[in-house]
Write a structure and sequence with these properties.
By secondary structure, the chain is α/β, with parallel strands linked by helices. The protein has 29 helices and 26 strands.
């Protein structure tokens, strides 16, 4: 055949360097299977050496390395598909948000957080707070919700290692920004953005970095700028680093600097979401901005600014929040008070639990709670704990009415699911499991997966975990200068066929990482059983200043060594996201032992559940909501202890430890090792399927972002529009109304004149109200009804706008104006099912369309 007629191999278009850089700097690659496969195929060894950082990888390969990689047609074709997909992704307009809220196409939401966990290539995170922030940006991208993250660009990241005595030590690595997936943020004219942040006697220059997270953006602030004083350049050196002064300065940079950065980029937000108290100063800057732009007095600016503020707390223990000494807070807030034309005391009072006590510490969480229009905890149980924790901010309000709701956290399934299970789900559920993970009907098709295929996928993930562990342990030992015998022993740690328990988290007292050691002989028998052995893999860090946490870590490591069980109990140093994925995908049981109710949510079990791991947890955080879903079917996991309240903590620990051992001995170990003639643990596999089918539709971050959108972001955006349009006339009116209410409130009175039983299982009541000169449309008159005298079941009934519980008939109360200016309400309501008469109180609260809730502290009058 001549050369003229020889068929030619079609030439594949090779992606250019700029296209690859676009993919490398868009953190969508962290959950995009094609992009991850592409970077690995470019050069597998270099990909590992780069720390799986695509920006660093491209620097390492250079032009010649890329040409060599793309000489393979399959790699070139994959590169073409990936780069074209990334280019098209941002421009797609058919999203959940666009379809659901077309009238809010211009809505802008800023999500402020001190940390964001997206990739080890951008190490600006420490724990669950950052993990949730990262999941929100990913799901906001997928759903098309217009969210921009605002955080800090830390100069250093820490690495953990254990010395010869098993003491945790830390080393710090200076990050090379040239290989971070960030670029200088530029204003509409293309000029790099720097913003000022005032500190006592000086002004900081704060630089802004920008990165893409799919359709979402993330802005990061940095004080390591020429021209700043040396101590000021170190403010953003380390996450949660330094003393109280450094911490309050970090939080001013995040909140004030972050809000100003958004303005400088033409992105002033309609909604500001404060992820914990670290970012609460963004609310303060929002007030100052409203004051400067619209010429509003402080109370008017506060009303305008609070509309559109959402506050999320993750900390169920009061001591876990920041508290700054009064003098330190006074010095740092003085410049902002001056900008508002105020004395500093009103600003300090907003952050004091006791506003009138000048000696009280300044707490940014209190500031955020006071200024937000919508507030929430991160699980149903945590919402209850938070209402109890902060009820004093709303004096005389029943605890269940404290205006703090909950949105339970969720995880981004594409990030955490194992590659083997990803392929199985794609084949049996179709691509929709990635785009609409909240569809329960779709997840029921997981039963269609062959048991053998599912178990093979899970065993592959466990084998990967064992191989990873052995390699990591050898690296740990080599860094300490261990000999050949120790390195050889490390290569035999764990067994890929043994029931594997994972424990990942911070080593801190409330998580009780040593609970499993309570009966060491019993534990040793479980671990060393020759027929049905158990192995445990630990990973996590204690805070550098938490000596108690470090002691707990030492206790775990020492037990394995002195009990001769180092092959069954393993601790992995220097925990990161890559390790988190390997552990959550490869373990059989996820262990979680916090002391109820001190776990706000805890998403580790959700991550593990994504790949079919079963949970063993105390009934705390998200597991309090999830564990009972099986409802008679195969268990989706097991509970440690009960949901009882324990006044004796040592007794609680003893009971929970006994429950832990009992669950392993009676249920977990027998079920795992019970095999059919095909060698399959059918009952265990049934629980895996049940767990994935029930957990996936609910505990995913798409559901979390949809709930924030529907319950907080869109309603607060609408309220902001109501109060800030037409020269902020709505905010001015609201501020005047609140001032009028405060002035008249001492003269408001309400009393229950009579309550008696009536025919038809009803109770008649007569209420008298003196409005103290207020108009009836300025207040709501309510009955507080405790059916049968049970406070836990109490509810409020608004007499002048009947709105009884769902399903109840209309509540007929008639109003009558008396000659002396009083109002009376007379009518009836149903008796309790038990027949017992309800306990009834009456109250008066404010009413105004601009309020997110009617509970203004100090403005509630009870009978």
């Amino acid at each position: 055949m001549s050369s003229r007629t020889r068929p030619r191999t079609p030439r594949v278009r090779t992606p250019g360097r700029a296209e690859l850089e676009m993919v490398a700097r868009d953190l969508r690659w962290t959950w995009h299977a094609g992009a991850l496969r592409l970077f690995d195929q470019l050069d597998p060894d270099a990909w590992v050496i780069s720390g799986r950082n695509p920006v660093r990888l491209l620097r390492m390969l250079g032009r010649s390395g890329l040409e060599r990689a793309f000489s393979d047609p399959a790699t070139a074709e994959l590169g073409r598909l990936v780069t074209e997909d990334f280019a098209a992704y941002r421009s797609r307009t058919e999203t959940w948000f666009a379809e659901r809220y077309p009238e809010h196409a211009d809505l802008r939401i800023a999500y402020f957080s001190a940390e964001f966990a997206l990739t080890d290539a951008l190490p600006i995170f420490a724990g669950g707070l950052g993990a949730v922030a990262g999941e929100i940006l990913k799901s906001a991208s997928a759903l098309g919700v217009p969210v921009v993250g605002v955080g800090l660009s830390y100069r250093e990241t820490s690495h953990q290692w254990l010395d010869a005595d098993d003491h945790q030590q830390e080393t710090w690595e200076i990050l090379d920004r040239d290989v971070l997936p960030v670029a200088l943020a530029r204003d509409p004219r293309g000029v790099p953005v720097e913003v000022p942040v005032e500190l006592p006697d000086r002004t900081l220059r704060v630089r802004v970095w920008d990165t893409r997270v799919g359709r979402s953006r993330l802005l990061l602030l940095d004080t390591d700028v020429p021209g700043n004083r040396a101590p000021d350049r170190a403010i953003t050196r380390r996450l949660y680093g330094g003393d109280d002064e450094t911490r309050i300065q970090q939080e001013l940079v995040l909140g004030v600097g972050g809000y100003r950065a958004l303005q400088a980029l033409g992105m002033e937000p309609d909604v500001v979401h404060l992820n914990e108290g670290h970012s609460a100063f963004a609310a303060l800057e929002r007030i100052r901005s409203a004051h400067a732009r619209d010429g509003l007095a402080f109370d008017e600016a506060r009303a305008a600014a609070s509309a559109g503020i959402v506050f999320t707390t993750h900390t169920p223990v009061a001591a876990g929040h920041d508290y700054f000494p009064p003098d330190l807070a006074r010095r740092h807030l003085a410049p902002y008070a001056e900008g508002l034309g105020l004395d500093v005391e009103p600003l300090l009072a907003l952050g004091r639990y006791t506003p009138d006590d000048p000696s009280d510490s300044f707490c940014p969480t209190v500031l955020g709670l006071r200024l937000a229009g919508t507030r929430n905890g991160v699980s149903h149980l945590h919402g209850m704990v938070t209402r109890n924790q902060w009820r004093g901010l709303w004096p005389r309000l029943p605890e269940q009415e404290v205006p703090v709701g909950h949105v339970t956290n969720g995880i981004h399934y594409q990030t955490w699911i194992s590659p083997e299970l990803d392929r199985l789900l794609h084949r049996h559920l179709g691509p929709r499991w990635r785009t609409t993970p909240g569809d329960p009907a779709m997840w029921r098709h997981i039963d269609d997966i062959d048991d053998g295929e599912l178990w093979a996928a899970h065993e592959a993930a466990r084998a990967r975990l064992v191989a990873y562990t052995r390699q990591w342990l050898q690296q740990q030992l080599a860094r300490r200068g261990a000999g050949a015998d120790a390195l050889a022993a490390a290569a035999c740690r764990l067994d890929p066929d043994v029931l594997t328990i994972g424990f990942v988290g911070r080593f801190v007292a409330y998580k009780r990482p040593t609970l499993f050691l309570r009966d060491r002989e019993r534990l040793a028998r479980l671990l060393g059983d020759p027929e049905r052995p158990v192995q445990i893999v630990f990973a996590g860090k204690a805070h550098p200043r938490d000596e108690n946490g470090k002691a707990l870590l030492r206790e775990v490591v020492a037990f394995a060594r002195y009990a001769g069980l180092e092959h069954r109990v393993v601790f992995l140093e220097d925990f990161d996201m890559a390790m988190d994925r390997v552990l959550s995908q490869g373990t059989d049981v996820w262990l979680n032992t916090p002391r109820r109710p001190l776990e706000a949510c805890g998403i580790g079990g959700m991550k593990a559940g994504a790949s079919g791991c079963l949970n063993l947890s105390t009934i705390d955080g998200w597991w309090d909501e999830a564990w009972g879903l099986a409802d008679g079917g195969p268990p989706i996991g097991w509970c440690i202890g009960t949901d009882d309240w324990y006044p004796d903590l040592d007794r609680q620990d003893a009971d929970d430890a006994e429950s832990f051992y009992g669950q392993l001995e009676r249920h977990i170990v027998p079920t795992f090792y019970e095999r059919d003639p095909d060698g399959l643990p059918r009952r265990w596999i049934a629980s895996m399927k049940q767990s994935m089918a029930l957990l996936a539709p609910m505990w995913n971050s798409h559901r979390m972002v949809e709930e924030y959108t529907e319950q907080a972001w869109v309603p607060e955006g609408r309220r902001r529009h109501l109060l800030t349009t037409n020269g902020a006339s709505g905010a001015r009116h609201l501020a005047r109304s609140i001032a009028r209410l405060r002035l008249a409130w001492p003269d408001v009175a309400v009393r229950v004149e009579s309550v008696h039983e009536a025919p038809g299982r009803r109770v008649e009541a007569r209420i008298a109200v003196d409005l103290g000169g207020l108009d009836p449309d300025e207040v709501s008159v309510q009955l507080w009804v405790a059916p049968g005298g049970v406070d836990a079941d109490a509810y409020a009934v608004t007499l002048d706008a009947p709105d009884g519980p769902a399903g109840e008939p209309e509540w007929p109360f008639d109003a009558e104006h008396l000659e002396d200016g009083e109002l009376t309400y007379e009518g009836s309501l149903p008796a309790a099912e038990s027949g017992a008469a309800p306990v009834i109180a009456a109250r008066v609260i404010p009413r105004h369309p601009g309020l997110s809730d009617p509970f203004i502290p100090g403005l509630i009058r009870w009978s």
